[in-house]
Known about the structure:
Layout: H1 2-22, H2 29-39, H3 52-57, H4 59-62, H5 66-101, H6 108-139, H7 142-152, E1 165-169, E2 172-175
Antiparallel strand pairs: 1-2
Amino acid sequence: MKHIGIVIALFLLFMPVQAKHNSEHALSPEDWKEIRGKVALLEDSGLMPMLLPIIMGNSDTLQLTDKQIQSFRSWRKKNYTNMVNVMNRIIELKVQFRVESLSPGVSSDHLIAFQSEIQKLQRQLLMIKLTCREQVMATFTDEQWENFAFIISDNPKLASLMPQAQPLNHGTYSQVTEH
């Protein structure tokens, strides 16, 4: 029951942001900060970090052009609601999985199938997030990537990830490997 309460609280916390997102107005930096805070509650539903709330919350520092801002707003309008729905469903199923895994009447085969269902949703979430990543990589300049790295350095969850990335060319980064 405790887990179900957590899921319900997450839904209730997120509804105002979702309604604000679905409106036609451009979100202010404060709106993006609110979204980033509430999406952080859903962050553990997937492996890839959320980029757009951080980027849009720091649009001045990144010196985003009007064209870039419009591009990111279009992505948000097209994908945000679906992404949040998938994230919420993953969390809901994870809670249900944990409850069922402690039930002696539930078979191992059922739990394996259940985990596969969660992984399928996580893959769907990754595919959505990758479209955002591709949008960012296609539009950022090298200077914006450098500024983004600076912004990320203040984020405890993401700070350790950015030093591993090195610029290849205009807006493209690659993983550095040691030989």
